[in-house]
Amino acid sequence: MPELPEVETIVRFLREGRDDKPSLYGFRIEKATVLWERSLAFPKLEEFLQNISDQIITSISRRGKFIRVELQNNYFIIHLRMSGDLWVEPETTPPGLHHRWMLHFGNGWRLAFNDPRKFGRAWMVADDQSILGNLGPEPFDKTLTADAFFKQLHHCRRQLKPLLMDQTFLAGLGNIYTDEALHLAKLHPMLVSNNLSEAQCAKLLAAIRQVLREGIVRQGASIDWVYRGGDFQKYFRVYQRTGKPCPVCTTPIERITLGQRSTHFCPICQKM
DNA sequence: ACGAGCGCCTGTCGGC
DNA sequence: TGCCGACAGGCGCTCG
């Protein structure tokens, strides 16, 4: 489920609690259980189990699509990839079929990483920049001005769709929000970055921020069988709407493959 | 520098 | 009903 709005929703929930679930701030990790070893990218299992025990969660934040849990001695960083999710649940619940690891707090609660497709990864590292250091700017960063974004787009010569999904260019967009932003900005996904005018670049940045804001307000999108969180899927303009009318001009939405990913756009609103 | 192909995984859905 | 391919919110790798 993870693009910026879904990850942001999960981070807020872990930080603030939701419904009957507590905030994890200040929780002491009594011990961890790893059920699928490949979910742990670093360090080796033994070292991880030993070093995570007895540490206290001091903060929880998001960088791009990564979740950064700050502990006293180091960072626990999680990437949900395609199907990962984090559940706060009582220890009395039987572990789910797709649980890959769990942090036990010894107070009746645990944090479980549920990930049917097993693509998700977690790292425990002293320096968070060893994992997050190559990420591009945050879309809402105030220093990312229209002018800076124009320069970034003109610094390379790439199709907009794969470029916007490149996390070293901009951190947080995935397949859904890229398609949605390009439609809102009325830009064809195959347009080449350094051909955009200043006005088009400014419009694209504004569109990216708008769709991400909408996604966060709706608490993310829930599609398929993963992530039953928000309802942004009810408001998709183009994503997974092949053949359905464009919300602006009613022309049927088209689907092509770009950068190995299905790409949805309106052939009238988003001309080459 | 850039894009395409593929691998990693499990699950769902539509067609036959 | 069962089988089979296509497809799914990501990303790292190789190969042209």
Give a structural overview:
With 272 residues, the protein is an alpha+beta fold. The chain has two domains: 4-132, Alpha-Beta Barrel (N-terminal domain of MutM-like DNA repair proteins), CATH 3.20.190; 146-265, Helicase, Ruva Protein, domain 3 (Orthogonal Bundle), CATH 1.10.8. 26% of the residues lie in helices and 20% in strands. The protein has a five-stranded mixed beta sheet. The two termini are 30 Å apart. The mean pLDDT is 96. It binds a DNA duplex (16 and 16 nucleotides) through residues 1-3, 6, 38, 65, 79-83, 98, 115-121, 156-159, 162, 165, 167, 174-177, 220-221, 223-227, 239-240, 258-262.
Short descriptors:
alpha+beta; 2 domains; 26% helix; 11 strands; DNA-binding; 272 residues; five-stranded mixed β-sheet
Overall helicity: 25-40%
Report the portion of residues in β strands. 15-25%
Give the count of helical stretches.
Answer: 7
Rg over C-alpha atoms, rounded to the nearest angstrom:
20 Å
Return the domain count. Answer: 2
Q: What's the total number of strands? A: 11
CATH classification class of the largest domain:
Alpha Beta
Q: How would you name the CATH homologous superfamily of the largest domain? A: MutM-like, N-terminal
Biggest sheet layout = 5 strands, mixed
CATH fold name of the largest domain: N-terminal domain of MutM-like DNA repair proteins
Task: Tell me which CATH architecture of the largest domain applies here.
Answer: Alpha-Beta Barrel
Order of helices and strands: HEEHEEEEEEEHHHHHEE
Structural class: alpha+beta
Strand order of the largest sheet: 2-9-5-4-3
Mean pLDDT: 96
Compute the separation of the termini in Å: 30 Å
